[in-house]
Design brief:
This protein is an alpha/beta fold. Helix content is 40%, strand content 11%. It has a five-stranded parallel beta sheet with strand order 1-2-3-7-6, sandwiched between helices. A two-stranded antiparallel ribbon has the order 4-5. Helix 1 packs antiparallel against helix 10, helix 3 packs parallel to helix 4 and helix 5 packs parallel to helix 6. The longest helix is centred in the first third of the chain and has 25 residues. The chain is globular and about 50 Å long. The termini are far apart. The relative contact order is 0.18.
Amino acid sequence: MNQPPVWNQARAGELEALCRQFRVDVLTTLHKVGTGHPGGSLSVCEILAVLYLQCANISPDNWEDPDRDRVVLTKGHAAPMLYRILAQKGFFPLSEMDTLRQLGSRLQGHPCAGKLPGIELSTGPLGMGLSASLGMALTLRVRGSAARVYAVTGDGELNEGTVWEAAMAAAKFRADNLIAIVDRNRVQLDGPSDEVMPLGDLEAKWRSFGWYTQSCDGHDVRALHDAVLTAQAHRGAPCVIIANTVKGKGVSFMEGKNTYHGKQLTDDEYARAMTELKGETAHGSLA
């Protein structure tokens, strides 16, 4: 098994700097190609960075290893951030980001399994990712594998009934190698999630379905890292981390706005976003 980078204050700062760069690069790509989903890509940034770059045993070197961990982005519209982090891991050249959503590209608007290494599941239709992740987790358990499955879902996606069918089944089968992370940004395509379909006390809801439940700041890499380690150590039940995030995080005029779920930035908006984000970036840029 690949050993994760040593976790300390310096490593946490490194991930924070990378996340700032990821936001710059994703918005730059979306502005260039004129299509894609900016709001949810920015909210899920730290979640995917902590999983892929610190906690999950997955890399280009072990991609064909049946005992690798699996990360499933069930909210598939946030694919631009997933792609940027897969490029950081070395799954494909960073320059390929400019082909996003273009005809013949491996970087489709939603993740497409079989086209691009690093993609475990094609996730366009919302609500089916947790069910598939449970299937992966149970298969790994039957095979005696120590690998884990991480399912990253959105809170708007929790409107789908299939999510809760999977939640019940995961608890019944005590799938403790399944860790769900909810990108709780409280905004979806049509407006605030609490107006579209109130979820109530989400932590209590998951707990009532038989899951071990935690909540944390979804933009705090230290809090996310600690929550994932706690979930990894838990036995006897599936685990969920409710990561409280902000739609459009990092760009003041986008934050919390459903209008930026799939809206592209104008030239002026892009310039403003870069001014806000580029103060502290590192590790190269697409801009």
